[in-house]
């Protein structure tokens, strides 16, 4: 229940009033702690560090996709976010693949779950926001093995 907004000075009075009308009981100690965390530069350092971490993860996935999964998928280079979409080249049963991977504790979603209607393209989404490099390597390896078995 804690968030922050960077707003111009002219908007502060109105935003504060709106916040107080909607949710006036946020914990003051938590707010003060987060404000100190941001004000002392810790958030900036954390974001800088994590950009490097996420870049490593993204590069690992893109490299593996190109080197080992190109027979099945065309990766879509990400412009933002912490995921990579990959468009399926052939009529792979992606639901069977993702179900098999889930049994191995590898969670990859199909593009189908991101469409309201029938999807125009088939593929997968590989998230890397909360997965460390060894787990990514394991997941990609399992995906590769599953695709080889399905072929």
Helix content: 40-55%
Physical arrangement of strands within the biggest beta sheet: 1-2-4-3
N- and C-termini, Cα separation: 48 Å
Order of helices and strands: HHHEEHEEH
The number of E-state strands comes to: 4
Nearest-integer average pLDDT: 91
Uncertain spans: none
Q: C-alpha Rg, in Å?
A: 21 Å
Number of helices: 5
User: Main β-sheet: number of strands, strand sense, barrel status?
Assistant: 4 strands, antiparallel
Shape: elongated
Class per helix and strand makeup = alpha+beta
Give the DSSP E fraction (strand runs of 2 or more residues): 5-15%
Structure characterization notes:
It is built from five helices and four strands. It is an alpha+beta fold. It has a four-stranded antiparallel sheet with strand order 1-2-4-3, with helices on one face. The longest helix has 27 residues, at 42-68.
How is this fold's topology laid out?
Elements: H1 12-22, H2 28-39, H3 42-68, E1 73-76, E2 83-88, H4 94-103, E3 109-110, E4 123-127, H5 133-150
Antiparallel strand pairs: 1-2, 2-4, 3-4
Helix pairs in contact: 3-5, 4-5
What would you say about this model in short?
The protein is an alpha+beta fold. It has helices at 12-22, 28-39, 42-68, 94-103, 133-150, and strands spanning 73-76, 83-88, 109-110, 123-127. The chain has a four-stranded antiparallel β-sheet with strand order 1-2-4-3, with helices on one face.
């Amino acid at each position: 229940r804690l968030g922050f907004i960077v707003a111009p000075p002219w908007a502060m009075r109105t935003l504060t009033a709106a916040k107080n009308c909607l949710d006036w009981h946020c914990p003051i100690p938590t707010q003060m702690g987060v404000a100190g965390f941001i004000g002392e530069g810790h958030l900036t350092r954390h974001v800088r560090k994590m950009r490097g971490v996420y870049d490593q993860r993204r590069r690992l996935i893109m490299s593996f996709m190109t080197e080992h999964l190109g027979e099945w998928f065309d990766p879509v280079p990400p412009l933002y976010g912490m995921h990579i979409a990959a468009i399926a080249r052939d009529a792979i049963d992606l639901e069977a693949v993702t179900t098999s991977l889930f049994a191995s504790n590898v969670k990859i979603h199909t593009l189908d779950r991101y469409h309201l209607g029938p999807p125009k393209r088939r593929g997968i989404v590989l998230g890397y926001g909360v997965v460390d490099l060894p787990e990514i390597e394991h997941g990609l390896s399992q995906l590769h093995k599953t695709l080889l078995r399905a072929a």
